[in-house]
Fold each of these.
Amino acid sequence: MKFSVHATDGAARRGTLTLAHGEVRTPAFMPVGTYGTVKAMSPAELVEIGADIVLGNTFHLWLRPGLEVFRAHGGLHGFMGWTKPILTDSGGFQVFSLGAMRKISEEGVAFQSPVNGDKLFLTPETSMEIQRTLNSDIVMVFDECTPYPATRDEAATSMQLSLRWAARSKRSHEGNANALFGIVQGGMHEDLRDESLAGLAVLGFDGFAIGGVSVGEPKEEMARIVAYTAPRLPADRPRYLMGVGTPEDLVEGVAAGVDMFDCVMPTRNARNGWLFTRFGDVKIKNARHKEDTRPLDAACGCYTCRNFSRAYLHHLHRTGEILGARLNTLHNLFYYQVLMGEMRGAIEAGTFAAWRQRFASDRVLEGSEPAPMSC
């Protein structure tokens, strides 16, 4: 792995991440392909909209279809027909999401499979083995996602366990030429974030992620932790904000020095009729769009906006047509990729502050609707 920063504007960075399967322009947004597919999108369409990298889900791919299938295909790339880079999460967040169905110990996490009820045990070593089999370009250490709310003692205990698991992940990763990223935990406590980062820095990783945010905390708390943590991550390594978020979250993350993002929001919200535009968010299922002949966003160059009206998208959503989910998803992911491209250009031009201000003012023009679902 190689990471180069070509330009900075304030804390915002424009760079290139070179991985085994190609280059990633940063700041970058990674569409989420939980089961080896970005829902409603083909690999060719992802390339067409400008995605350089996608995310796969270690936990779910381990359960279905299983490692033997990936071995037969030479990894996740061959299985899903994607030739560009892939990042895989470690499974820690998915285990966290099981709640009472899982039991955490020093060794790992015991849980029942949500697929068939089998008793399973996931450890840092198992996670590394799965990700090695998937042959992902970026491997994430196995960690415990600190819940919210958590007391300081609970957050500290969780963070220290994640550090020990990070050390085990690194030892198990030895011999794998692909990149390994550490994950900074510590809940909403700045001193614990510092302690986590210090421990990870001693271990040494190819990149560093901010974990344990977008887990139910208020937006203000997330913004505070990101703004505090991101600039403290090593400047010569890529910085990844996990599971975030809205267009506004991405812009503020870039302003804080973050290079990489992932979130299910653009795809999940698309399937629920929530569409992002440069002038605000549109709930296409609302009756006011029933006879609207305008495109979703006249300034957008995606296939959806070039060919279809709001009325048609409204009709597809109301009738539950598969094409509606496809067109909505294509638009949302195109919008996210254009957003990242505009930020890269503004950083290169030294105009990021002005661009950020214009972005914020434009995004309220469509009208105020309730906040979208979180990742």
Amino acid sequence: MKLIVILFGILFSLAAGAGVYKCTDEAGRIVYKANPCATGQSNVEIDLKTGIKRDLDREQKERQMQDEQEQAKLDAQQEEEKKQARLKQEAKNESAKNQFLIKNNPLKYSAFAIPPYDPEQLPSPVKNFAERLPEIERLRRAAAEKALASNQCGRVESVELNGKSTQDALVFLVDCSTGKKFYLTEQEIKSL
């Protein structure tokens, strides 16, 4: 007999623990169901034990918004990674052009005149301008050519981005074998 009472008690508590769903349709009619509401109806779950109401529609919208935000973050991160990879590749291509120029003109350029900047280990003056690295490599080559064109520089020994550079105006230092130093701004180089 005790067993039957315990069994009924367990079954009753399981049935009482089941949620009830309050469904409101477009016309404003309220229906209580044991199953979740159909789509298009407001869906509120009521816990019979505690009396707590949960708005399932709101929770679903919040989950959906959270998923969309996470997807947007993921998309932005992937886009940033693609941009960084593209910048690194462009910088690598410009460095290769610099090295090709140096190898084909050993009388005009020292072997270490325009050493390539490694995007992973940039010198401190260049770190602030990492997003402009391909342009910096291109301008270093142009600065060396401009110094040679002045006829005051017999051979270029080094071309580096100078610490005087700002976001608006990059400054390059060109050291020549004659001892002459050229400080060329981005605007002067582009007027070549």
Amino acid sequence: MPDFWKHCGYHLLSRDSAGRLVVTDDFLRAYLTRPELALVPESCANERSLHEALMEEPRREVSEREIEAIADEDARENYRVFLRFRSRLLAAPTLEACYLAIFGEADVSVPLLFVRQLTQVILRNILRGTADALQARAAELFFRPQKIHLQEGRAMAADLETVQLHATTGGFGSLGELLVQSRTPVRTIELDVLTEETASVYWDRDERFDTVLPLGPSQPGSLALARVMEHWIEHFHGVRVKIRPLARIEDDRWTWHVGLDAEASGILNDLYQGREVAVERLERLICLFKLVFENPADMLAPVAGRPVYLGLAMDVNQVLRMKPQNLLVNLPLARRV
């Protein structure tokens, strides 16, 4: 099987008997090598001492006095943020349990950076047995915002950060930024559109985030995304569902829906309530799905046997920011893990 997303930390973790991820010392050490915590020439002696102690013993207790002894204010705050997150990781039996606990709170206080890292490494575990490059690319929607371009009835999803980088620098770093500022032409970005025939190119560039995923009722990207969502739900909740893309919702007994982002939640809520929705707002709804539980007994009794409709939408700037946690906290489950 392809070994992808090698830098997400997956290989630093262990798995329990249920296949869920368990924190290791090496996984914690990886956070200490990130730019926010890595030592720099300006690091003071106290910061160096704390960093070395944590590299030696990543689970050791750290007192506020040790934090206050660090000269740089930003470094002090970065350590506090990391240590709060470390406490969450160590308090939970698995990364999956930590993830669910984060979204079980009314006010999510964990930085988005950490949430996205958790999402990616959990997905890497879920997809560990896949050879389907389209599923790996579709999984990127769970943790990386996408810039959407509408083309001939399809929504073409490209990585937002990659698009912005090339818009600013043309792919040439600081030199490219100077060229853009001086209006000097630079090389345009070339992003390959993945299809069933070309998807294998993804494996050689899986961490470059420079491929385009076509989304729509009959597009391979939506089919792959449906499979990833099925795996995501089963991994966390142990229930099997079938998800398929839709062109529209035609159901007089529409009972339950889940928006997979803030924009889609608002649109689906208004449609469900029978409110008029402006055409330009409806056009932002780029994907619809129908979810069916294989075992209706896994659902809340009042809605057992009924389909759940899912929606994915871009905002006014044509950016898609998926919230995969909505699939875990908003489904009509009879029992929650």
